Amino acid sequence: MAISSPRVAVVVVAGGRGLRAGGEVPKQYRLLGGRPVIARTIGAFLAHPAVATILPVIHPDDAALYAAAASGWRDPAGRVRAPVLGGAERQASVRAGLEALAADAPDLVLIHDAVRPFVTPAAVDAAIAALADHVAVVVGTPVVDTVNRTDAAGAVVETVPREGLWRAATPQGFRFSAILAAHRAAAAAGRNGFTDDGAVAAAAGHAVHMVAIAEGNVKLTTPADFAAAEARLAAETFLRLPDVRVGVGYDVHALEPGDAVWLGGVRIPHDHRLKGHSDADAALHALTDAILGAIGDGDIGRHFPPSDERWRGAASSLFLADAVRRVRERGGVVAHCDVAIVAEAPKIGPHREAMRAAIAAACGIPVDRVGVKATTNEGLGFTGRREGIAAIATATIRLPLPEDDAS
Fold it and tell me: Where does the UniProt annotation place the signal sequence (predicted)?
């Protein structure tokens, strides 16, 4: 029987380790377009008006990673509940999430993989609508390719008819009381090998209905998946942000006796240091001004005046991060950065890749969108005399069109 105006909860399953994706952190916390994957996934559900509650289920070791990711979404209504800790297997993690919802049970629950950040409003709508007539639904796409079964050596032994075959995805949707009971029954019977919740529901005797959704709701599993997702996200982002702007920044700092210089967010041992109120990172100062110039928002001195003691000795990465924040608050992104450092010494080449990585992380963009180069001044001028170091930077940003121009 259909439920009028059902309360819908989403359990976001984020307890896995994601070893096949590579990297140093579980794949649900890896950056995708500068944001953790889980932040993008939860953000997609926060953007859906039918979703009342979102409950993440995380690995016990990932509390700090989750807390950092949680700063990446806005939730003024408090729809994202505090995360619960998952179990050794996905099935146990889902059950932990369902049990946590039981005290204030929703009518419907959608169970979704945290590493499917491209879930669309249409997919959520389709799952919720289907639950008006079904107890359990699984979204997916029909198989259209030829399917072969092979032996251990890789030889084809059978071509499997593809009629009626589907590629299952998430969210998988259920009447809440039914799927909670099904999970409890499976656990009580010691049946812990189910890999998705549709199978748990089927084992409890419920008919599971497939719901067709559009292609693209991919699960990020391998390094190739992440590379494809970055390319897709960049293309989608750039298409919706047609206002392209370029800013230019320039900065110079004198050298004085010391033991290291900061350039491009990297500490480089040297017999001098750059003189300034902050860490005097001329490269990041120039880039910060370039970004601020692109959005017409003053310069670094306006936002972080050297007369303010709060910024004495401050890391210039803070200034760059603030400029990037100002771009994002306008609904835009930093698309590309290029920095040229003019210095006789120290040598920049050995530190170039570390600088690119630091700038990419601060701007939330892939490292292949960051350029760092260096040149000497051939002994000419103040840089040639080793009295100081200069930097020139350009930044390309993309913004949505102003409302007056959108038509």
Answer: none
Residue 271, annotated as binding a ligand: no
Q: Residue 217 annotated as binding? A: no
- 206 is known to lie in a ligand binding site: no
Task: State how far the Cα of 281 lies from the Cα of 315, in Å rounded to an integer.
Answer: 8
**pLDDT the model gives residue 2:** 61
What is the C-alpha radius of gyration for the chain, rounded to an integer number of angstroms?
26
CB 276 within 8 A of CB 266: no
Half-sphere exposure of 90 (CA within 13 A, CB side): 19
Kindly state the tokens that stand for 394. Answer: 């350009």
Convert the pLDDT of each residue in 254-269 to its tens digit: 999 999 999 999 999 9
Please tell me whether 299 is known to bind a ligand.
yes
CA proximity to 101, closest of 78, 121, 81: 81
Domains of the chain: 8-233 (3.90.550.10), 241-406 (3.30.1330.50)
Q: What is the pTM of this model?
A: 0.70
The answer to whether 68 and 30 have CB atoms below 8 angstroms apart is no
Cβ-proximal residues to 350 (8 Å cutoff; 6+ apart), any chain? none
Phi, psi angles (nearest 5°) of residue 387: -90, -15
What's the mean pLDDT when you consider all of the chain?
Answer: 92
376 belongs to an annotated ligand binding site: yes
